[in-house]
Specification:
The chain is α+β, with helices and mostly antiparallel strands. It has one domain. The strands form 2 sheets. The chain has a 5-stranded antiparallel β-sheet with strand order 5-4-3-8-7. A 3-stranded antiparallel β-sheet has the order 2-1-6, with no helix packed on it. A hairpin with a 2-residue loop joins strand 3 and strand 4. The longest helix is centred in the C-terminal third of the chain and has 22 residues. The chain is globular.
């Protein structure tokens, strides 16, 4: 799956996104790590009440994916990865994520990855490589 950034202005987001855990606050303006018109490979998605986020890697970002609100993008290619699996939040919130299989089976994978856990980093590098190869193959079809 690929998306194109249509805006990096946070105030363009629907108001429901400003209520989510304080990541996007009213009054914040630009998300400089996103470049309008740039295309990004989607590494996974989060579905929450009235909100959808996509996991992306940016040129200026860290070596792991960051989640961004889907309304900042338009879908360029809606084909999902054959590696993605559906997983539900164990808290009963109803939140769900579609992510690579190893990640789907470990609810704390993302936290371990962003904390620098070496096992999670190795698994992520492998997943990312496979997803990028799959993306290249799909783009040549």
């Amino acid at each position: 799956m690929r998306v194109r950034c249509v805006t990096n202005i946070r105030s363009d987001l629907p108001s429901v996104y400003f209520r989510h855990t304080g990541i996007y606050r009213e009054g914040s303006s630009e998300d400089v790590s996103l470049r309008p018109e740039a295309e990004y490979l989607v590494y996974g998605m989060i579905f929450s009440t009235q909100q959808v986020f996509v996991y992306l890697c940016t040129e200026d970002g860290p070596d792991y994916p960051i989640w961004y609100p889907l309304p900042l993008f338009e879908t360029v290619d809606s084909r999902v990865s054959r590696l993605w699996r559906l997983a539900f939040d164990s808290t009963g919130s109803g939140d769900a994520r579609i992510v690579p299989e190893d990640w789907a089976h470990d609810e704390h994978f993302y936290d371990r990855l962003t904390d620098g856990d070496s096992e999670a980093i190795r698994a992520w590098v492998k997943m990312k490589t496979i997803l990028e190869i799959e993306d290249q193959e799909q783009r040549t079809i």
